[in-house]
Specification:
Length: about 150
């Protein structure tokens, strides 16, 4: 079994077409109004409230991002997710499931149904939003191979 160490914690790797490894990632405010980052019930970092002018967020972004500096005069070959486009089934594509928000009392509510999907290079990467599913709740699938001589120059 292969392992990887995101956030300094050992995890099994997902297997293409096999079992998926999932991380539970939560960002929340503590009683001092600092923003905490939790991974699998372990707090791994925080952003002090002094970094922000307001007490609450007005925008949340979910998805993937790559840096494309076109160093070789073409699009980067960096893959997003596991290089598959969002039309591939879960098990072959990167995904974020059970997307939700919490109010200041830590009451959970579903992410808004009207989500703005933004894909800047659809021939290189894409994203698909699904409003609800019994197994994955509100979720997105995303990914792509990056550079391709004909489709993503």
């Amino acid at each position: 079994m292969d392992y990887y160490m995101p956030f300094g914690k050992q995890h099994d790797c997902s297997a293409m077409g096999g079992s998926n490894t999932e991380l539970d990632i939560v960002i929340k405010q503590d009683e001092d109004q600092d923003w905490e980052l939790w991974v699998d019930d372990t707090m791994i970092g925080f952003w002090p409230r002094s970094n922000y002018r307001t007490r609450n967020a007005n925008r949340i972004d979910w998805g993937g991002e790559i840096v494309n500096e076109r160093i070789r005069g073409r699009h980067t070959s960096t893959q997003m997710g596991n290089r598959h486009f969002s039309s591939a089934p879960i098990g072959r594509v990167a995904y974020i499931s059970n997307m939700a928000l919490y109010n200041l009392d830590l009451d959970r509510y579903d992410a808004p149904e009207a989500i703005n999907v933004r894909v800047t290079k659809p021939d290189c990467y894409d994203l698909k939003y699904s409003q609800s599913d019994d197994e994955y709740g509100q979720h997105i699938t995303f990914g792509g191979p990056g550079y391709d001589r004909r489709k993503c120059p």
